[in-house]
Amino acid sequence: MTPPRSDRVQAGDLPPDVGESSSKETQTDLSAPEDDAKTHPHSVDSLNEAELESNGGVSEFHPWDPHKSAKDVEIGDFYFKRQNYRAAEDRYREALHYKDNDAIATIRLAVCLEKLGLLDDARAEYESYLRILPHGQQAEEAQKAIERLKAPAK
Questions:
Q1: How large is the average pLDDT for residues 137-141?
Q2: Residues 94-122: tens digit of each pLDDT
Q3: Residue 71 main-chain phi, psi, to 5 deg
Q4: Which domains does the chain carry?
């Protein structure tokens, strides 16, 4: 038995609802059910937050490319080893652009920022790492760095 081919289908052989138009007469009702507020009491809060973030308009899509992110981390490491911390910072930030919440890029960005003397930013990235991986391989290092950066300068 051979599989059906789409080029041999006659339009008259199809059921009447196949190929239905998406015009305004056939739109699906997407409004919330009547008991939605009772069933999901906090859903309005999430909707309001989303509207505030997008200012009532369409928000842009965020690119996600883990392969590009990994390559940016690799290149960032190259620059870091050569003590070109500004270039390394750019690559680690680009890695986070393509894969946000990447623990490796976050911890390496934190170390890089500390080397650049941007201590508040470095502390924020160490804290971000701990939010991503609270028990990760560099969690102890991140915690020590946060304590070190919180200490008043002598």
A1: 95
A2: 999 999 999 999 999 999 999 999 999 99
A3: -65, -40
A4: 66-150 (1.25.40.10)
